[in-house]
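Margin note: ligand = fe (ii) ion.
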Amino acid sequence: MSSELCEMSLQQTQALIRLTDDTLQNICCKRFTGEELYVEALQKVLGGKGRRGPASIFIVFQEKDGTIRRGRLFHLKEGEVVERSEEISIDPLSNYAVSLAQTGAQTDVVASNWADGCESVEDYQANFHPGIKAAVGAPIRNFIIYRISGEAPGTIIAFNYHGRATNYDADVLRSLAVVIGSLVTLSDEVRETEKAFLYTIEALARACEAAEEGTGKHIQRVNRYAGALAANTGLPVDFVDAVSFSAQMHDVGKIKVPVSILLKEGALTREEMDVIMLHPVYGEKILGDSPRLQIARDIAIAHHENWDGSGYPYKLKGEAIPLTGRIVKIADVYDALRSKRSYKRPVSHAEAVRVFKEGDDRINPLAHFDPVLLATFFKIEHIFEKIYESLAGESG
Ligand SMILES: [Fe+2]
Ligand SMILES: [Fe+2]
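Resulting structure:
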């Protein structure tokens, strides 16, 4: 291998490693789809400045029933995708290169140059689908084709390398496709697991609410208020997402409180109050020690703590109370004010805002709430009102 080729190979390998790294980090955030990843990978690894790469790449995926293949052609220039074509459909039984290489070749990657089998570049054009020729926009002189196997079978065809398309180029394309293929499969699996996880959490939150009057609306509203409060306090997007998903689990501990106490009409005895006040500790236990549920656990344990240390169960004070718990406290208190309970009537939005300003016989705003979050609440109280109205109907 010449030193120039060595240098290029090193650069391409490094680009591939960076891509794998970035993708693995983003897999947890679910921020890409199969096609996006292919395009990003191809432009980073093949299209970089001074790199040896094709002028255009056609990525095509097979329909589930195998009848038709649809894809787009991307033009690469100095590390960027400069243009992408409309969708092109190809019948796999047609006589063009895509299908020939797919059915005839023994290996999964094939490099082809016009001079190897044709009299002229013009003759060579007869191998290609008219849609592809039009999208490439220049006479095709060479190509490398790679078949993607596995869950989402498809084909990548890289057109018009400078000079000849070589075995080295074919190897680069193959390594790239293998890595992308594994990442796509992995991300699909992560997405499935994530979906199952979210579903389980929602089911758990709903099951706990079901013991009380009303079912899901209270927890949905608390999720939304908490997200709005976090976002408008300027907290990072990932934090906002986590809070607005985890808030719904604030009362999971109530599942261990007897229904006869939860649903009791009229005043509770001291002993009954003591049992209810254990629900944050029960919630903490139920959510266990999974790192994935840490925010939910913080919320469950801290949403009845007060800023001045007069809350329960641990009488935490000020910033010792997890921020997520302080956020959900405001959300939960607002919703409780607006909702009908066995011991109280619901109040209007204006009345709830007045209680957040002046307090009442149970709530002392300056003593109970984080002052920064309270200020945010006053700035966005109209959003709370909208959330309540759009999801009104059930208490919590
Ligand atoms: Fe609670
Ligand atoms: Fe609640």
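The first helix runs from residue 3 to 27.
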